[in-house]
């Protein structure tokens, strides 16, 4: 068994100059922190492990190696997470001799935690660390959907060294990878190569432009619910809200919006790994980006604490937990089947796999209403096409 003590340095942050909250109301009060005197004991009934990865190599944003400590300092000023969610802060990973050494070490840590049913929450570091996530998921033989909240689709057609702007290229072209589907939330058209966008659309990826997302942000919740890996790039937030980024844009999400997206990720049934990347303290202003990043993590954890695991029970028609609706559409041979939770009021569509087993795709109430107008929901189309391939 992997000894996590070999991979981490203890948490070391200075006490704030004044108390923001009463001691028992603060974030550190209901978590276990790896300090010099308290080494990590895993599994220990923990649900989530916070991992700092101070790694800025293979990225133009070399200052991102300072991000974990800056974010943690702001996170510890916030209120404790409601409920009894068991969290351990493992500290910062020891930096490898090379970038690939760090990737290998992070992959080992993720594999160990997921095997023990502990959720890894990664504070980067740059998004080049996505390779460690892919290695771990592939080693565990978990086919996964990757959702990226990012202003850019980090893919290039030409062969280049793996970095934070082309990590998708390395994952997609890795024959050993168990990656299966890509979702982007918040890309900005003027920052992306249209040929790359077209390539991903042709491969049935689900891409959501920033303007479309902001018009109805709640419609992104089903996308998070169907994802195993979620990565947030801080550059998806507008520069005025998060200046600490190597690739800022005057457009993007507001702070409240990015925190809501983090909460959607937290309540996801299927999610296995969450990461926040590309915060660059060298470019920050009065810790504004680090503070927002801490709040993103806080909202993710708050959502996680409210999680309801419903997906495993969707096929049980006798549970009384769900209502099933059959909708007839003119041009389809079979009815569309929608499933609604009586507990959370979330929706799914029931599809059939190639071996005639039911497969459930998360959807919204709007998809059900669209079917009732004799329109085929786009999520049904893309889900059906993926099942056939």
Question: How would you describe what is shown here?
Answer:
The chain is α/β, with parallel strands linked by helices and 389 residues long. The protein folds into two domains: 4-305, Ureohydrolase domain (Arginase, Chain A, 3-Layer(aba) Sandwich); 311-388, no CATH class. The chain contains eleven helices and 14 strands. The protein has helices spanning 67-75, 99-115, 130-139, 167-172, 194-202, 210-215, 221-225, 255-266, 288-305, 365-372, 378-388; strands at residues 8-9, 31-33, 48-53, 87-93, 119-124, 144-149, 179-187, 206-209, 229-233, 273-277, 322-327, 336-341, 347-352, 358-363. Strand 13 and strand 14 (358-363) form a beta hairpin.
The secondary structure category is alpha/beta
Mean pLDDT: 93
CATH-derived architecture of the largest domain: 3-Layer(aba) Sandwich
- The CATH topology of the largest domain corresponds to Arginase, Chain A
């Amino acid at each position: 068994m992997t000894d996590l003590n070999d991979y981490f340095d203890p948490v070391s942050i200075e006490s704030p100059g004044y108390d923001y909250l009463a001691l028992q109301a603060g974030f550190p009060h209901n978590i276990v922190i790896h300090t010099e005197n308290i080494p990590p004991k895993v599994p220990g009934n923990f649900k989530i492990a916070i991992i700092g990865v101070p790694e800025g190599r293979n990225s133009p944003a070399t200052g991102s190696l300072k991000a974990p400590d800056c974010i943690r300092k702001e996170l510890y000023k916030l209120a404790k997470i409601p409920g009894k969610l068991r969290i351990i802060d493992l500290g910062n990973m020891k930096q490898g001799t090379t970038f690939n050494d760090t990737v290998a070490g992070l992959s080992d840590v993720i594999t160990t935690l997921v095997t023990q049913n502990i959720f890894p929450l990664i504070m980067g570091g740059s998004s080049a660390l996505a390779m460690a996530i892919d290695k771990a998921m592939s080693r565990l033989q978990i086919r996964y959907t990757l959702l990226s909240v990012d202003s850019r689709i980090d893919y290039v057609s030409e062969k280049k060294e793996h970095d934070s702007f082309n990590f998708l290229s390395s994952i997609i072209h890795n024959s050993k990878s168990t990656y299966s589907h890509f979702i982007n939330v918040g890309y900005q058209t003027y920052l992306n190569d249209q040929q790359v966008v077209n390539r991903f659309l042709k491969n049935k990826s689900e891409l959501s432009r920033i303007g479309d997302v902001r018009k109805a942000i709640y419609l992104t919740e089903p996308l998070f619910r169907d994802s195993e890996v979620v990565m947030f790039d801080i550059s998806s937030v507008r520069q005025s809200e998060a200046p600490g980024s190597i690739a800022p844009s005057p457009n993007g999400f507001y702070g409240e919006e990015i925190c809501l997206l983090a909460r959607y990720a937290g309540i996801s049934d299927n999610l296995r790994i969450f990461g926040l990347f590309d915060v660059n303290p060298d470019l920050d202003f009065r810790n504004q980006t680090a503070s927002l990043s801490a709040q993103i993590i806080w909202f993710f954890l708050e959502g996680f604490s409210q999680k309801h695991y419903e997906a495993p029970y969707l096929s049980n028609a006798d549970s009384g937990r769900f209502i099933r609706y059959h909708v007839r559409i003119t041009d389809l041979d079979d009815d569309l089947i929608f499933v609604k939770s009586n507990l959370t009021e979330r929706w799914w569509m029931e599809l059939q796999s190639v071996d005639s087993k039911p497969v459930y795709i998360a959807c919204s109430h709007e998809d059900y209403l669209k079917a009732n107008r004799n329109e085929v929901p786009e999520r049904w189309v893309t889900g059906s096409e993926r099942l056939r391939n």
